TrEMBL record:
<keyword id="KW-0229">DNA integration</keyword>
<dbReference type="InterPro" id="IPR050090">
    <property type="entry name" value="Tyrosine_recombinase_XerCD"/>
</dbReference>
<keyword id="KW-0238">DNA-binding</keyword>
<comment type="function">
    <text>Site-specific tyrosine recombinase, which acts by catalyzing the cutting and rejoining of the recombining DNA molecules.</text>
</comment>
<dbReference type="Pfam" id="PF14659">
    <property type="entry name" value="Phage_int_SAM_3"/>
</dbReference>
<dbReference type="InterPro" id="IPR044068">
    <property type="entry name" value="CB"/>
</dbReference>
<feature type="domain" description="Core-binding (CB)">
    <location>
        <begin position="69"/>
        <end position="154"/>
    </location>
</feature>
<comment type="similarity">
    <text>Belongs to the 'phage' integrase family.</text>
</comment>
<dbReference type="InterPro" id="IPR004107">
    <property type="entry name" value="Integrase_SAM-like_N"/>
</dbReference>
<dbReference type="Pfam" id="PF00589">
    <property type="entry name" value="Phage_integrase"/>
</dbReference>
<keyword id="KW-0233">DNA recombination</keyword>
<dbReference type="InterPro" id="IPR013762">
    <property type="entry name" value="Integrase-like_cat_sf"/>
</dbReference>
<dbReference type="InterPro" id="IPR010998">
    <property type="entry name" value="Integrase_recombinase_N"/>
</dbReference>
<protein>
    <submittedName>
        <fullName>Site-specific integrase</fullName>
    </submittedName>
</protein>
<dbReference type="InterPro" id="IPR002104">
    <property type="entry name" value="Integrase_catalytic"/>
</dbReference>
<feature type="domain" description="Tyr recombinase">
    <location>
        <begin position="174"/>
        <end position="375"/>
    </location>
</feature>
<dbReference type="InterPro" id="IPR011010">
    <property type="entry name" value="DNA_brk_join_enz"/>
</dbReference>
Length: 402
């Protein structure tokens, strides 16, 4: 029960207790209120009772207990509790939060309002990267991280609402993703046949599994198991670049492992690749590395090496500059969806729980599908194949009416 003490005609002190501390003292919270002049005298008791009830509810449900903690303090505690993010993702969040602390870090988390976040976004839009203003999509990524922190505070009943969810944001420019055509993939495979074995194997697995770069770099021989005539691949780790720490191995991006079935052709190529790596190790008088992608000395290859090498390969065969290593992941997902594989299966294969995100991010209509759509629409307008407009008939009808 709340205790109410009248200080004068319109001032009241409300005290709420909520259990005891380890030393036996009561845990109390007090608040002095002033009843507005607009409230008539007969309405004062009801007004005060309502305020007391609201304070008691907030205090006992925990909304006020940690609400005075600054955003920076709570965000740092939030970062320390995260275990499901890959090291590179967590470090990215840490950097982004570090950039917003000067603007909102000192504000108590229960006093953070949408206007403060709007001012933050206005300041971020003034930032530049390599002499150019950063894009709106990047600005909104900062807000997404802030929102994740505030959502955690809301879930823990420290605040009642997430102010980041109350902001009207402008539309962002979505970068067009380009997917290789079947002819381009054939051309790429022909060129890869002339590449060193580790590059050939890396890019082939990228096309046939949709794995991210870091996941491929972390693959071990033990991740592959025989399954019928093919292979069962378990993807459970990733090697990513963390600023200040170099290349760090951790879990996959979503923290979960997944299984992918590979064809018998891939199995044969992988067996041949392993034999070659064993011969290299034997000639160098060393043990075979547990990892697939190592150099001639058995040392792990830096992830950037595969990215840079593929860009050179793309340039040598005249592929668009927009193509990159992740393009092969886009190709994998888009090809499966266009071939009729159900969305949930594809999402499981590439490590996404949200099929909607999968479609928005990875499913891109290829030129053939666009041409097929045009032909379908044409057939709908004139199923028999005749001309869309019978100009001769229209002209003769016009002549008769004249």
């Amino acid at each position: 029960m709340a205790s109410i003490k009248q200080l004068d005609d319109r001032r009241f002190k409300i005290t709420v207790s909520n259990g005891y501390r380890p030393d036996g003292k009561k845990i109390c919270k007090a608040k002095t209120i002033r009843v507005p002049e607009s409230i008539p005298k007969r309405g004062i008791p009801q007004y005060v009772a309502h305020e007391a009830e609201e304070l008691e509810r907030q205090f006992k449900t925990g909304y006020s207990e940690d609400g005075n903690m600054t955003f920076e303090e709570f965000a740092e505690r939030w970062l320390a509790r995260q275990v499901r993010y890959a090291p590179s993702t967590l470090e990215s969040y840490r950097r982004m939060l570090g950039r917003v602390y000067p603007f909102i870090g000192a504000i108590p988390i229960n006093r953070l309002r949408p206007i403060a976040l709007e001012n933050l976004l206005a300041e971020l839009r003034k930032r530049t990267y390599r002499g150019r203003p950063i894009g709106e999509a990047t600005v909104q990524k900062y807000l997404t991280v802030v929102s994740a922190v505030l959502s955690d505070a809301k879930r823990n009943e420290i605040i009642q609402k997430n102010p980041a969810r109350m902001i009207d944001l402008p539309m962002t420019h979505r970068t067009a993703q380009y997917i290789p055509s079947p002819a381009e993939i054939q051309k790429l495979l022909d060129v890869l046949a002339k590449e060193p074995r580790h590059y050939r194997m890396f890019y082939l697995l990228s096309m046939c599994t949709g794995c991210r770069r870091g996941e491929l770099c972390a693959l071990k021989w033990e991740d592959f198991k025989c399954s019928g005539n093919g292979l069962l691949l378990t993807v459970s780790h990733s090697r990513s670049i963390v600023p200040g720490k170099g290349v760090v191995e951790g879990s996959t991006k979503n923290g979960h492992s997944r299984e992918i079935i590979l064809s018998s052709d891939i199995r044969g190529i992988l067996v041949s690749y392993r034999r070659r790596k064993q011969m290299e190790a034997l000639q160098a008088h060393r043990e075979l590395s547990p990892y697939l992608f190592t150099d001639e000395h058995g040392q792990l290859i830096h992830p950037d090496t595969f990215t840079k090498r593929l860009r050179k390969i793309y340039a040598s065969i005249g592929f668009p500059k927009e193509y990159h290593l992740h393009t092969l992941r886009h190709y994998y997902v888009t090809s499966l969806l266009h071939s009729g594989v159900d969305k949930q299966t594809v999402a499981d294969l590439v490590g996404h729980a949200d099929t909607g995100f999968l479609e928005r991010t990875y499913c891109h209509p290829q030129q053939e599908q666009k041409e097929q759509a045009a032909s379908t629409m044409r057939a709908m307008l004139r199923p028999e194949g005749e001309a869309l407009f019978n100009l001769a008939a229209a002209y003769s009808s016009k002549s008769r009416s004249a």
